[in-house]
Amino acid sequence: MDTEGVTSGLSEDTGETSETPPLVSPAWVRERLDEFATSDPDLRLVEVDMNPAFYEVAHLPGAVGFDWRHDLQADRVRDIPSPSAFADLLGSHGIGPDTTIVVYGDNANWFAAHFYWVASYYGHADVRLLDGGRTYWTEHDMPTTDEVPTYPRVTYPTPTADESIRAYRREVSRALESETALVDVRMPEEYRGDLVAPPGTDEGARRGGHLPGAVNVRWSANVGPDRRFRSREELATMYADAGVGRGEDVITYCRIGERSSVTWFVLSELLGYDAVRNYDGSWAEWGNLVGAPVAVGE
After folding, report:
1. How confident is residue 63, by pLDDT bands cut at 50, 70 and 90?
2. Domain assignment present for 1
3. Based on the domain organization, do 204 and 129 belong to the same domain?
4. Are both 220 and 130 inside the same structural domain?
5. For position 19, what pLDDT does the model report?
6. Are residues 115 and 211 in the same domain?
7. 60, 211, 254, 266: which is the annotated catalytic residue?
8. How many domains does the chain have?
């Protein structure tokens, strides 16, 4: 597939040569809207929002809509969808294992980045993030519609998980005694322990604070005012200044794993760090554990 223009939003001299670039520009998608709107499973646009009303009001032509709360959460336990549920979700929207998925969403791609991470965890070969997400697209008056497309169901084989990009609480416990870099992407008030959750949310923790030794690099520092990612040079400098070295094992976390997916995407997919895991249990799990060490303040 033609990859011209996939690095728009980053610096012009990034030298992107990957056959499956992780980030595509709004211009790249706009030029291919007709292709995305066909029933051919080669290309599929996916919008992922916390609030499904956004998709209902307007979305990119040809895009299918996923409700993050309903479609990307397990039914009876706090977890991501099971392998079979994930396969059924994609197959029911005409997405096969060889489909190029371009995902975008609200909140500067919080939930789209989480979908990207889940799809990577389940080994989908070609998933990409639309730079700037829903906000950039709509603010620049690019085409939208309220028509909901339907695509023929396809078979999506039950995937196998890639555990190398996911951290569990036992691994986080071990990381506290190692050289692993822990990156807390939450608001400074959450990191300090002044808040146990962002204002307006309904799932917090018994204790506020952060993992001992974690550095606080807020997820929003990865993007500019237009919600497109900063240049690779800016991102590399930011994380180097925070002490997050390229050669280190890195674990990212937030409250429930969606904001930290943005930082996981930057470190793993844009900057090419070799060993980055997302702790999707995050503070909603750690802050409720009995006996778990917690640090407060700066």
Report:
1. very high
2. no
3. no
4. no
5. 64
6. no
7. 254
8. 2
Nearest to 292 by CA among 284, 204, 228, 66: 284
Please name the residue that has the structure tokens 């030029």. 31
Domain final residue, candidates 140, 161, 182: 161
> Which residue, chain included where needed, has tokens 């309903």?
70
Whether residues 31 and 156 share a domain: the answer is yes
Tell me the torsion sign for CA atoms 181, 186, 188, 189: negative
Q: Is the dihedral of CA 103, 109, 112, 114 positive or negative?
A: positive
- Whichever domain contains 254, its CATH number is 3.40.250.10
| Contact assessment for residue 80 and residue 121, using Cβ atoms and an 8 Å cutoff | yes
Are 156 and 65 members of one domain?
A: yes
Percentages of the chain per state (helix, strand, coil), in multiples of 5:
30, 15, 55
* pLDDT (tens digit per residue) in 104-160: 999 999 999 999 999 999 999 999 999 999 999 999 999 999 999 999 999 999 999
| 214 inside domain | yes
Q: CA of 256: how far to CAs of 61, 78, 160, 179, in Å?
A: 30, 10, 23, 24
Clarify whether 116 is annotated catalytic.
Answer: no
Tell me, what's the pLDDT at 5?
Answer: 37
For the chain, how far is it from start to end, CA to CA, in angstroms? 47
What is the extent of the structural domain holding 106?
23-161
Pull the structure tokens for residue 47. 């919008």
- Burial label for 186, CB within 10 Å (0-12, 13-18, 19+), is buried
Residues 171 and 266 in one domain: yes
Q: What are phi and psi for residue 24, nearest 5 degrees?
A: -120, 150
Tens of pLDDT, residue by residue over 217-270, are 999 999 999 999 999 999 999 999 999 988 899 999 999 999 999 999 999 999
For residue 158, give the DSSP letter: P
Yes or no: say if 251 and 180 are a contact pair by the CB < 8 Å rule: yes
Single-letter residue type at 200? G
User: Which of 161, 188, 204 finishes a domain?
Assistant: 161
